[in-house]
Design a protein that fits this description.
Strand order of the largest sheet: 4-5-9-10-11-13-14-18
Strand content: 15-25%
Mean pLDDT: 93
Distance between the termini: 38 Å
Oligomer: single chain
Radius of gyration: 20 Å
Low-confidence stretches: none
CATH class: Alpha Beta
Length: about 375
């Protein structure tokens, strides 16, 4: 991880107890109070050769205008799982070559929105408004859930918060291995700790500053032993010569460490990105090879592998995964109905249909625990 060098704080948040705790943990760094953080962002990005890399050394603490808990935006004409995204922090100290945040966000700096009381209030409103539905919430869409959490400490607040929620569950998604602060928390089975996985070759070449595969799996084993349900995300799957051997071995390594009966879900998603991400990534990471595959523009305008390549990868991954547990719950992330049909022989058809499958899976795992 790149160490933090600077902290900038919106003055109105100086007395916030959550902020004070963070600043105490960063006592070796001075915090600079600035009213107009947007101007600071524009100034810093205008003269830095690689703002995204430099941004990983700078923490901005600011308030957020609008709702902090939102629906996953999904992708047009593709089936979304109905995830609820908690925007407590954007960006992370990990620097993956394929990261869509390089073109999705206009702010390259680690940015914390510390109003956790507001976050919890918004979650309560969603759960209370729909008491007969079950919702999945997560912090890992616009940043890594745990890579910076030892300093931020959001999970230490969120895990106990979700512990007594009958119709909500929290997912912490990461490429890091720092889980010590989670192990003693009373989660009551209402938090899933998930890891994004790829073969060591991809981790070493493309997932810069992420934890190695062995460290991720070791951390997952610690969380398993602490009673957490686990999730794993093979997303993005990268197609390259030798991918089959590498991914099959990765699945084998996973289940050498992890009891498949403790795995609540596994997602699969082929590499996909806006066309301009390819240019940005190749400029920032000249040695990257992941965009050399045969990528075409889909209905949503994103570059994807040809459909036969995606279907082949999904089918083989599912066969390797379910060889360890035929009841393992595997789903596709942002894929069309026809791809689901070819891979599974059936399809949830809609966001609501896929969310129903999640509800049934979650009920099997956690509803009896309260």
């Amino acid at each position: 991880m790149i160490p933090l060098k600077e902290v900038y704080l919106e003055p109105s948040l100086e007395g916030h107890p959550f902020v004070q705790r963070i600043l105490q943990g960063l006592g070796h760094l001075p915090s600079v109070h600035i009213d107009d953080l947007d101007s600071l962002i524009n100034e810093l990005t205008s003269y830095q050769e690689d703002p995204w890399r430099e941004g990983k050394t700078t923490l901005l603490i600011r308030s957020y205008q609008g709702r902090l808990v939102k629906d996953c935006p999904g992708t047009r004409d593709h089936i979304c799982c109905g995830y609820k995204v908690i925007n407590v922090m954007t960006n992370c100290p990990i620097d993956c070559s394929y990261c869509i945040l390089q073109v999705y966000l206009n702010n390259p700096f680690l940015t914390l929105y510390p109003e956790i009381d507001k976050i919890f209030q918004e979650i309560e409103e969603i759960l209370d408004r729909h008491p007969h539905r079950f919702f999945r919430f997560g912090t890992g869409e616009l940043g890594d859930s745990l890579a910076f959490d030892g300093i931020i400490g959001f999970s230490s607040e969120a895990v106990p918060f979700f512990a007594n929620k009958r119709n909500g569950i929290l997912e912490l998604k990461t490429k890091a291995a720092e889980v010590g602060h989670l192990l003693a928390l009373d989660h009551k089975g209402r938090t899933v700790v998930s890891w994004s996985l790829n073969p060591p070759k991809i981790i070493e070449e493309e997932e810069h500053m992420a934890a190695p595969l062995g460290e991720r799996l070791g951390a997952a084993r610690l969380c398993q032993d602490a009673g957490y349900h686990l999730g794993f995300h093979f997303d993005p799957l990268i197609h390259y010569p030798g991918w089959e051997e590498d991914y099959r071995r990765t699945v084998d390594l996973l289940f050498e460490q992890i009891d498949p009966g403790r795995v609540i879900w596994v997602s699969l998603g082929g590499l996909r990105c806006p066309p301009y991400l390819k240019q940005v990534a190749q400029e920032r990471f000249p040695s990257t090879k992941i965009f050399s595959g045969e990528l075409i523009s889909g209905e949503d305008g994103k570059l994807r592998y040809l459909k036969p390549i995606r279907v082949e990868m999904y089918r083989k991954m599912i066969s390797w995964l379910q060889a360890y547990d035929e009841d393992l719950f595997v789903y596709l992330c942002m894929e069309r109905d026809d791809v689901w049909q070819e891979v599974f022989g059936s399809s949830p058809k809609t966001r609501e249909g896929l969310n129903k499958r999640f509800e049934e899976r979650i009920a099997h795992f956690v509803r009896e625990e309260i």
